[in-house]
Design brief:
The protein is an alpha/beta fold and about 425 residues long. Among the domains are: about 170 residues, FAD/NAD(P)-binding domain (3-Layer(bba) Sandwich); about 80 residues, no CATH class. Helix content is about 35%, strand content about 25%. It has 13 helices and 20 strands. Helix 1 packs across helix 13. The longest helix has 16 residues. The relative contact order is 0.20. The model has no long low-confidence stretch (mean pLDDT about 95). The structure holds flavin-adenine dinucleotide (FAD). The site of flavin-adenine dinucleotide has 34 residues, from helix 1, strand 11, strand 19 and helix 13.
C-alpha cells in the first residue's frame, strides 16, 4: 500500500514507523526542516543536547512512547524533579499528598478537603460523568473556596483566561490522574529522539520530505497530495493519505468536504502557546524547582520551568535553561508582540522571583505556536473528530482526538499506531 502522511510530528512519525514495519510504502511530508512537530527542538552551538522549543517531559506511565523508545533501543532518563507553587510571593513544594497537608497558606481543614478532592480525582477511574460538569463550578464547591481561590483559580485564569468557564472537569481529572512524581526524558532531547525514529523509518524504506509544505489534499477520482517544495508545485498519488495536523488546518487543506462536516469540526477550538526560553549562567530557581506554577491571577507568567533542574546542565554547556510559559487564544495580541516586548512584560514579575536574573542572562529566544492545547469543553466525547473523513481513503489522526487524557506525545504514538492498524485494515 502506498501511503502519504502529512506531518512529521510524533503522530505522523509513529504511524510511518508502524506502517513501514509492515512493509508499506510510506512518504512523510513536513513543512518544517526537522521532525518533531510541537515537540520540536533546537540546539545552541556549544550544547551537547537539543532542547524543546516548548517544555516537554514524559510521565513514567506514558507507556506507549516509553515502550516505543525501548523497542528502538533508545535511552530514557527517569528522575523525580521538584514541582512547586508560587503563592503570596513565596515558594512551596507541592508535589505529594504530604505537601498538600502541610501547605501553610491554608487552614488545616481546607488542606484536608483539598487533599480529599485531589485523591478523588486520582483514584476514580470513571471520567465520563465528569465531562458533564464545569471544572470551575465543581472545584470551589467541593474543595472549598479558599483553597480554590488560593491555588487553582489563578492557574485556570493564567492558562485559559475567560475561556476557563468552558473547561470540563474531565480535563482536570486527567491532569491529576495521569501525573507521576517521577518524570522521563529521552537522552539528547526530543529532537534527537524524533530524528532517531525518522532514521528507523528510512531504514524500513520510508521516505521523509522536510521543508515540504502540503498545500492541498484531494480524493475525487484519485487520492492525491499537492505539495510545494523549493517553489515547485507537485501532485503525488497515494492509495491512502493520513493527515496529522490540527483539524482547523485539515479543513483548510482538504478539497470538497461536505458543509455539515466542516461546520461540526469548525467548533473545535484550541489555545496557542508562547514560550520565552532564557539561557542563564546561574540558576533561576535556586531551590531546585523544575516546575513552578504561578498562583497569582495578575501575573503575566503562567509557569516557570527550569529544564536544567530536571536534566543536568552539563548537557547544555553548564548553562541554566528556563522556560517562561504562557498560553493564549490564537487571536491574542501577544502573538503580535516582539520578543523584546514579551520579555519586558514578564520582566518585573521575573525579578520578583529572582531579582538578579538579568545579570545572569546570556540570551533569550521566544517560540510561538498558534495551536498547542485543545480546548476541552463539556461533553467533548461527542465532539471528537472521527478518524475516517468524508474523503475516501483520507484519514485524520491528530491532537484533538486525544481524550480523556490531556494531549501529549505518548498519545501521538498511541494514535499513530491505531490509525496505522486501521489503514492496514487490521481493526
Ligand atoms: C507548550 C507545550 C507543552 C507540551 N508539553 C508536553 C509534554 O511535556 N509532554 C508531551 O508528551 N507532550 C507535550 N506537549 C504536546 C505534544 O507536543 C503534542 O501532543 C504532540 O507533539 C502532537 O504531535 P502531533 O504529531 O499530533 O502534532 P504536531 O506535533 O502538531 O505535528 C504536526 C506536524 O505537521 C506539520 N505541518 C503543519 N502544516 C503542514 C503542511 N501544510 N504541510 C506539511 N506539514 C505541515 C507541522 O510542521 C508539524 O510537524 C506539549 C505541547 C506544547 C505546545
Amino acid at each position: 500500500m502506498k501511503v502519504g502522511i502529512i506531518g512529521a510530528g510524533f503522530t505522523g512519525l509513529s504511524a510511518g514507523y508502524y506502517l513501514t514495519k509492515e512493509g508499506h510504502d510510506v512518504t512523510i511530508f513536513d513543512r518544517d526542516g526537522v521532525p518533531g512537530g510541537l515537540a520540536i527542538g533546537f540546539q545552541e552551538k556549544n550544547w551537547e543536547w537539543s532542547l524543546e522549543k516548548h517544555y516537554h517531559h514524559w510521565f513514567t506511565n506514558d507507556r506507549s512512547i516509553l515502550s516505543l523508545a525501548r523497542e528502538l533501543n533508545y535511552k530514557v532518563f527517569i528522575t523525580r524533579p521538584k514541582t512547586s507553587v508560587y503563592v503570596d510571593g513565596k515558594f512551596f513544594q507541592l508535589d505529594s499528598p504530604l505537601n498538600v497537608l502541610q501547605f501553610p497558606r491554608l487552614p488545616i481543614f481546607d488542606r484536608i478537603r483539598m487533599a480529599f478532592v485531589l485523591g478523588l480525582m486520582r483514584y476514580n477511574p470513571f471520567w465520563k460523568p465528569l465531562e458533564k460538569i464545569r471544572a470551575v463550578d465543581f472545584l470551589p464547591k467541593v474543595m472549598g473556596k479558599r483553597a480554590y481561590e488560593k491555588l487553582w483559580e489563578p492557574l485556570f485564569i493564567n492558562k485559559f483566561g475567560d475561556r476557563r468557564h468552558d473547561i470540563s472537569l474531565a480535563w482536570f481529572w486527567a491532569r491529576v490522574r495521569k501525573r507521576t512524581p517521577s518524570l522521563a526524558y529521552p537522552q539528547g532531547g526530543f529532537l534527537k529522539f524524533a530524528n532517531h525514529l525518522a532514521n528507523r523509518i528510512k531504514k524500513q524504506k520510508g521516505k521523509i520530505f522536510l521543508n515540504t509544505e502540503v498545500i492541498s489534499v484531494e480524493s475525487d477520482k484519485e487520492t492525491k497530495i499537492n505539495i510545494k517544495r523549493n517553489l515547485e508545485i507537485k501532485s503525488i498519488k497515494f492509495d491512502k493519505i493520513l493527515v496529522t495536523l490540527p483539524t482547523f488546518f485539515f479543513l483548510k487543506l482538504a478539497k470538497n468536504l461536505p458543509g455539515d462536516y466542516v461546520k461540526r469540526l469548525s467548533k473545535l477550538e484550541g489555545f496557542g502557546a508562547i514560550n520565552l526560553v532564557m539561557r542563564l549562567d546561574r540558576k533561576f530557581l535556586n531551590d531546585n524547582t523544575y516546575w513552578l506554577n504561578i498562583c497569582d491571577k495578575n501575573s503575566p507568567v503562567m509557569a516557570v520551568v527550569e529544564h536544567t533542574n530536571f536534566m543536568n546542565s552539563k548537557y547544555y554547556d553548564r548553562e541554566h535553561v528556563v522556560y517562561v510559559a504562557n498560553y493564549f487564544l490564537p487571536n491574542d495580541p501577544h502573538f503580535k508582540m516582539t520578543d523584546n516586548e514579551l520579555l519586558k512584560e514578564c520582566d518585573p514579575y521575573l525579578k520578583k522571583i529572582n531579582s538578579k536574573y538579568r545579570e545572569n542572562l546570556i540570551s533569550y529566544s521566544v517560540f510561538r505556536t498558534p495551536f498547542a492545547q485543545p480546548l476541552i469543553p463539556m461533553n467533548y466525547s461527542k465532539m471528537i473528530p472521527p478518524i475516517e473523513t468524508p474523503l475516501k481513503n483520507v484519514y485524520l489522526s491528530n491532537i484533538q482526538q486525544v481524550y480523556p487524557w490531556d494531549r501529549g506525545t505518548n498519545y501521538s504514538v498511541e494514535n499513530g499506531r491505531e490509525v496505522a492498524k486501521m489503514m492496514m485494515n487490521l481493526v
